Amino acid sequence: MGEIKNKVFGLLGKNIEYSFSRGYFTEKFNKLGLKKNKYVNFDLQKIEDFPAVIEEGGKTLAGINVTIPYKEDVMRYLDKLDTTAKEIGAVNTIKFTKRGNLKGYNSDVVGFEKSIFPLIKKQHKRALILGTGGASKAVAYAFKKNGIKCKFVSRKPEGKKQISYQDITEKVMEKYQVIVNCSPVGTSPNIDKCPDIPYQFLTENHLLYDLIYNPEVTTFLAKGKEKGATIKNGYEMLQLQAEESWRIWNKG
Length: 252
What we know:
Blueprint: E1 8-13, H1 20-32, E2 38-43, H2 50-57, E3 61-66, E4 80-81, H3 83-88, E5 93-96, E6 102-105, H4 108-116, E7 126-130, H5 134-145, E8 149-153, E9 162-163, H6 170-175, E10 178-181, E11 207-210, H7 219-226, E12 230-233, H8 235-250
Parallel strand pairs: 1-2, 1-3, 4-6, 7-8, 7-10, 8-9, 10-11, 11-12
Antiparallel strand pairs: 3-5, 5-6
Helix pairs in contact: 4-5, 4-8
């Protein structure tokens, strides 16, 4: 099957003046010679406006990526969910099927897995996930699948799987040697901010991964680097999940 032509794709989110996806796919369409494909931002202040976007797009809409804060909220508007998206409980890719149904997928998990696992070493048996939004669920799913135990860190922890930032002691830092920031803390323009963890207990055995890619090295990552930890930002994950979205939209 050839690649989708003459269609509109887009990114659903809130306050997304700048979007990696739009730049990435616009360039991709140019390279592939798909001049009539368009990628637009659907910047909605509330998720309740989503059905209007679908109606307005009509038959030209072929696929949508979903970003903060709608990865969970959008699910109630979909007709079907892929098994992985269902298990994760978050969607970041929507495909318009031939029957006109909306089907939800999660390509974050593929992007995260492929970008972090080359850095995982034998001491990396447990992970702390900072934040509890849609992206954190895909991260937890990837860890679980690969036998890494994890805990969520939240400002308002709920249940046994979540702890508060105040609960992160030296002992916790020793035990959990992978730390993934899934919160928006430290994103440009607020680049001096960072998640409230005890950075003094980091070592060269730690791996710090930040889903943020702007700035390239967040304060969170810089503090890790100072302690000799391995660091990585979310840029490659974004590229990989975008490619996975494109694969999903073009398959059968």
